[in-house]
TrEMBL record:
Subcellular localization: Cell membrane
tRNA-binding keyword on record: no
Gene3D superfamilies xref list: P-loop containing nucleotide triphosphate hydrolases
Pfam families referenced in this protein's UniProt entry, alphabetically: ABC_tran (PF00005)
Family stated for the protein in its record: Belongs to the ABC transporter superfamily.
Keyword entries, A-Z: Amino-acid transport, ATP-binding, Cell membrane, Membrane, Nucleotide-binding, Transport
PROSITE patterns with a match to the protein in the record: ABC_TRANSPORTER_1 (PS00211), ABC_TRANSPORTER_2 (PS50893)
Signal peptide limits: none
Name of the protein described by the UniProt record: Polar amino acid ABC transporter ATP-binding protein
Membrane topology: Peripheral membrane protein
Domain ABC transporter stretches: 6-240
Length: 244
C-alpha cells in the first residue's frame, strides 16, 4: 500500500453565506496524479487552496503525510513548504531574474546559503529546459517559459506534493504543450500531484484518478478510462460533453 500523502475528511468551506465546499472527502497516495475537473465555480480552486492552507477550512480534517494539520497550532509556512503550488498566473517577481526568482524562497525561507541555492536553481532550470534563461527578466519570457520558471520556483522548496491550479489556461494554445510536458516529466519522476485542468489529453495520459466536482462536492471519481468513457452519473456525462 502506498503512503497516504493527503487525506481530506468532510472538508467544509464557506465564504459568508456561500457554502463552497460541502463535506469533501479525498485521499491522494504517494506518486499519484489526481486531476480535478468541474465547471467554473464548483470549488476546485478553493479545495486546492485549503490543502495548501491559503484558505482555512470551516470544518473537517486535512491530514498531510499522516499528520492532521490544525491551522491554530501548526506552523503553516512549514506545511506550505511541503505542499508546493503553481497558479494560473505565474506571479513571478518582475524585478528579479529567472535565477533569482528560483533562488528567492530557499534563501529567504529555508536559509540556504546563496551558493548552494544557486547551484540548485541552475539544476532546476535545466530540468524545466530553461538553462539559457537564467539571467533574463520575466518580461522577456513567453507565457510557457514563465510558467516553467514558476514550476522550478515551487520545486526549489523541495515539496513532497505539488498542486497545480489551471497552470495552462492563461497560455496561448501553442505554449500549452511545453508546460504539460514539464508536468508529465515531474509525474514520471514520482511527484505526488493534484492538478486542476481542462486538458483532457493530459488527464487521460497522466492521471491515476480523475475527480469530477460539482457544486462543492465530489460527484464522481475514477480511473481516467472509466470516468471519461463510462461515467456513471448523468451530470458527469453532461459536463464531459460540454467540454469535449
Ligand atoms: P472553481 O475553481 O471551481 O472555479 P472556486 O473555488 O474558485 O471554483 O470558487 C467556488 C465558489 O466560491 C465560487 O462561487 C466563487 O465565487 C466563490 N469564492 C471563491 N473564493 C472566494 C472568496 N475569497 N470570497 C468569496 N467567495 C469566493
Ligand atoms: Mg478555479
Amino acid at each position: 500500500m502506498k503512503k497516504e500523502m493527503i487525506r481530506i475528511e468532510n472538508l467544509k468551506k464557506s465564504f459568508g453565506e456561500l457554502e463552497v465546499l460541502k463535506e469533501v472527502n479525498l485521499e491522494v497516495h504517494e506518486s499519484d496524479v489526481v486531476v480535478l475537473i468541474g465547471a467554473s465555480g464548483s470549488g476546485k480552486s478553493t479545495l486546492l487552496r485549503c490543502i495548501n492552507f491559503l484558505e482555512i477550512k470551516n470544518g473537517g480534517k486535512i491530514v498531510i503525510e499522516g499528520e492532521e494539520i490544525d491551522p491554530k497550532s501548526h506552523n503553516l509556512n512549514e506545511v506550505r513548504q511541503r505542499v508546493g503550488m503553481v497558479f494560473q498566473h505565474f506571479n513571478l517577481f518582475p524585478h528579479k531574474t529567472v535565477l533569482e526568482n528560483v533562488m528567492e524562497a530557499p534563501v529567504l525561507v529555508k536559509k540556504l546559503n546563496k551558493a548552494e541555492a544557486k547551484k540548485e536553481a541552475i539544476s532546476l532550470l535545466g530540468k524545466v529546459g530553461l538553462s539559457d534563461k537564467a539571467d533574463v527578466y520575466p518580461a522577456k519570457l513567453s507565457g510557457g517559459q514563465k510558467q516553467r520558471v514558476a514550476i522550478a520556483r515551487a520545486l526549489a522548496m523541495k515539496p513532497d506534493i505539488m498542486l497545480f491550479d489551471e497552470p495552462t489556461s492563461a497560455l496561448d494554445p501553442e505554449l500549452v504543450g511545453e508546460v504539460l510536458a514539464t508536468m508529465k516529466e515531474l509525474a514520471q519522476e514520482g511527484m505526488t500531484m493534484v492538478v486542476v485542468t481542462h486538458e483532457m489529453g493530459f488527464a487521460k495520459e497522466v492521471a491515476d484518478e480523475v475527480v469530477y466536482m460539482h457544486d462543492g462536492q465530489i460527484w464522481e471519481r475514477g480511473k481516467p478510462d472509466e470516468l471519461f468513457n463510462n461515467p456513471k452519473e448523468q451530470r458527469t456525462k453532461d459536463f464531459l460533453s460540454s467540454i469535449l
